[in-house]
Task: inverse folding
């Protein structure tokens, strides 16, 4: 892949030591290492996308999860400037990646700007059960 999002070891868009990296936070279900309570010796499974499209989706999911977790934090601590900056940095990266994905693969949700054209683009891509890679 030609972008810098795919390297799981390097995908850490934050400089805030209070947050886990995007991939780690995503697979653990918690962006805050001090709040993560590992169950016995359980290790999350490694996620291995097989295609560039799957990698884009994984990267989008990681950033969206980070934004959601930070959003929950900000509900409780609305004056934390560094977390607001972190949220906005992730939001900007998500929006940029979403635009890249939609240019390459089509709309990902019904609110996509790429649906402002004729013919209607929502059903132009194969449905999941029509894909040949299943």
Result:
């Amino acid at each position: 892949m030609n972008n810098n999002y795919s390297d799981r070891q390097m995908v850490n868009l934050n400089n805030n030591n209070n947050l886990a990296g995007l991939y780690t936070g995503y697979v653990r279900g918690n962006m805050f290492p001090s709040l993560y309570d590992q169950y016995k010796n359980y290790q999350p499974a490694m996620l291995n996308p097989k295609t560039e499209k799957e990698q884009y989706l994984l990267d989008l999911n990681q950033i969206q999860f980070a934004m959601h977790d930070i959003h929950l934090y900000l509900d409780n601590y609305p004056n934390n400037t560094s977390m607001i900056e972190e949220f906005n940095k992730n939001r900007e990266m998500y929006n940029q990646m979403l635009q890249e994905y939609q240019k390459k693969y089509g709309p990902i949700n019904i609110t996509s700007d790429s649906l402002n054209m004729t013919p209607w683009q929502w059903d132009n891509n194969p449905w999941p059960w029509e894909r040949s890679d299943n």
